[in-house]
Every structure is written in C-alpha cells, then in structure tokens.
Amino acid sequence: MDDVVGTLNDKRLTSAERRDRVSAIVDETFDFQAMSQVILAANWRKASTNQRARFIELFRELLENTYFSALDSYSGQTARLGRERVKGKRAQVQTFVITSSAEIPVSYKLRQKQDDWFVYDVVVDGVSLISNYRTSFRNLIKQKGMDGLLEQLQQKVAKLRSKQTPVQ
C-alpha cells in the first residue's frame, strides 16, 4: 500500500510510468491464479489449460484497466491500516481509504505461499471482488460457454484500454 501511494504521489512520473509501477506492484502481490480458480469455481476444472491461462491473463488486464481509471483520478487520498487477522496460512488486513468526504473500508484477503503473502480477494465497502465476478461470470458461462466469456473479456479489456488517458 505504501509503495502504491508513494508511486501515485511521485509527480516526476508520467501517467504511463505510474501505471507501469503500480502494475508491477500488483503483479507481485496479487495471486491471479487463485482468484481465477475461485471465480470460475467448477468451470475452472472444466476449462482447458489454454482457457485457464487466457482467463488469468484477461482477468488481470480487466482488473488493472478498470482500476487504472481510479489512479488517474487520484488526488492525495490517504490510507489507514486497520486490524490484521491471521489464521494459519490465511489472513485478512483491514484498511481504510480516506477521502475528503468519507472513509472507505477496504479489506484484503491473503494466503501464504512459501514465505510470501498474496492477495486473493479484495472487499470494498462490504462487497467482495471475487463474489461479484463469480456471479456475473457464472451466468455468462451458462449462456455463452467458456469461449464466450473469454471473448467478452477480450472485448471489455480492449474497450478499457482505448479509454486510458494518453501518455503525459
């Protein structure tokens, strides 16, 4: 969190450089495979190796591009660490994003792999990222199959990429 805020506050960086640095931080701390497995649930086991790899890649890009729009509107908000709970190889870290008008609770669910901790879910103001995507993707897979979901994700990512602000 400190690395992300420090990157966002570094005015020497262009918008593209900030995005790249935040992307690198996210890639090092988020477990996109675990997130993908939980989101797809039974559909993960049914998917081919190529479909799984493609889903992980598109899901990561979807999250990055969705939340990069929030980075572009960053204007000095701060974060406060709340309580931490550790139970075996699972943990939950509560934080609060402090804006000029509100304090937004954001909890990170983590799991330990080897000696490192990785985020596998983010709960913003009581809404789980994983649960939200699981519901919408499950319905899409029922209607269009796994390839249909991948096609829609590809289109969504392309649309989000095209909306990114130009390099400064």
From TrEMBL:
Pfam families (UniProt xref): MlaC
Superkingdom of source: Bacteria
Name used for this protein in its record: Toluene tolerance protein
Organism: endosymbiont of Escarpia spicata
PANTHER family noted in UniProt: INTERMEMBRANE PHOSPHOLIPID TRANSPORT SYSTEM BINDING PROTEIN MLAC
